[in-house]
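The passage that follows is intended for readers who have already worked through the single-chain material. We present the inputs for a multi-component assembly, then the predicted structure in tokenized form, and finally a short commentary. You are encouraged to pause after the input and sketch how you expect the pieces to fit together before reading on.
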Amino acid sequence: MEFKEICKEGIYINRIKFNNVSKFYGEIIGLNEVSFSFNKGIIGLVGTNGAGKSTTIKLCTSLIKEDIGTVTVNGEEIWLNYDYLSKMGYAAEKDRQFNWMSGREFLEWNGKMFNLDSQTLTKRIKSILDLVGLKDAADRKIQGYSRGMRQRIKIGQTLLNDPEIIFVDEPMSGTDPLGRIMIADTFTRLYKDLGATIVLSSHVLHELERLSTSLIIIDQGKLVAKGSSEQIREKLSGFPRKFRIHCDNSREVLKSLVDLVIDITIKSDGVLDITTKKFYDVENQLLQIQKSGVSTIFEFYPLDSDLNSVYSLLKAPIPEEEELMQ
Amino acid sequence: MNFRLLQVPQLFENFKKDFKFSRPVYQLSLRELRVKKSTWGLFLLMFFPWLIEMIIFVYAVLPTNSLINVSNAPNLTNGGFWRTYYRIHLDTVLPYFVTMATLLIGTSMYQDEIKDETISYIMTKPIKRSYIFLQKFLAYFKVITLITIPAVVIQYLTAFLFTARYDSAFNYSRPLIDLPTLLYINIFDLFLVVISVIVITSTLGAIFIFTGLMVNRPLLLNLFLGFSILIEQILIDLIDNRIEPLYLGINILARQVLGFETVFPNFFLRREIPYFDQFSSYVSWIIVLALTIFIGFTQSSKKEFT
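Having made your guess, compare it with the prediction:
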């Protein structure tokens, strides 16, 4: 792979550790006495809106400083650690880029801020555009990009400095099921080919549970659960979960899913609510539907009540952190 | 002490290295300002008072010659139309526009990126935040100079050219002043005006950039800071019982804006104010500028981006 050829293997970042960390925004608690650590892998950070995911990521990217406790990388403080920042990539939650730039320019400016020489930068931009599938749209203004394309260019800029660790806040938000698969593939390739640690956040558990090697689940600023994705998945198996599907042909989608669901309701034209224990089968089926052109799947997401139930379930005791994260 | 002195070359080398490393922030900020419509809008707006007064001159003043009173023009700075046109421009109207440009561009240097959250693309890069402040200031400096100086110069030159036809100073039959002296005075005067605009816009801009970074909603604070000298003057006038509607509305409100009073009167009333005062006025502005940059440089890294 071309990208791999021009990048080095990472050796610097071994462990990021949160030690009894609290962060306050005035009277609002962002994080409340949270302790955990993670090593190499794809780390999924899951929680509802306002749970503390973004706070966690911002602490890891030196955008904010902890009020209590310590956030360290290999034992060194992260806040204003420029050595660490030179080996880190970050994509914020909101897909607001410099809209007046083209995708290529956006990558160029971000690369310049890592002080990359123009030859290396050109090579990396080329391989990144290939990797995120934006080669043809590279010279178009970001303003005209779809939400999925914006997500991908945002993820692309995290790779410019050959990072050892990448943080992406809500990478799947606003993308269609195919876009999600593409993004998930990108992360898997980055992890497997480059050995980069990837930290992803999402308010939708199912987006990350299959992709991640480890999961950290946060709710209301507190750590709810942490463990390998297998362990979390095992806990969730057999637990019926509710999802909503937006499509343009409810009848055909309903027909295809009928054997996989416990309950299915047509909420309105093009909107289906399903309850299933076979989430992965449903997801695969929806992909098949999309690919075969029977129906376009615009959105597929769990209902909030489902996520809260998952949290309740996960609050049960789980194995110690050290056992899970190594 | 000796040890510290030995460190100076090393510190300078580090400064040079970090400054060079942070250069893309300057380039990016310049580029951002260049693509913003508001920057171009402000550039054009600076010529607005000039345009209005040109229209007034052509349609009202020129035909009637009513404001030009040659016989009552004992010297250049107290001439008829010279005073009404040129002084109003530079001493009253223009400061409003210069202030607004300074305030809007200075405040936006960090605020726009904070608001649309693109700031994270800069702040998560391995560029020292002190140098980001410095580079943003330099980008601001270049843009504000390019926005304000052409308008200032064209207003000065227009005033000079238009009044030259009518002002007694150009009447060679009068022994008041000769042309070389007149040109010398005006070139020097223009030079001082340009320098003063640069000093003032830099100083206020540095303050506005810093508050734009450190304060969540800086516009109100910056409006207060920018116009505080005006408020102070109104209070003084209230105490002195000198407030009259017209006086308040036209003269004081405009002329006292931003402390232009501190510098500009020196150009027009230089016979009344000792030369030393003019110099000390510059020095005081430059000291404030240096202090603000120093505070911004040392304190900007403490800012968190929530």
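Commentary: Confidence is low (pLDDT under 50) at residues 1-10, 316-326 of chain A. Residues 3-234 of chain A form a domain with the Rossmann fold fold (CATH 3.40.50.300). How closely did your sketch match?
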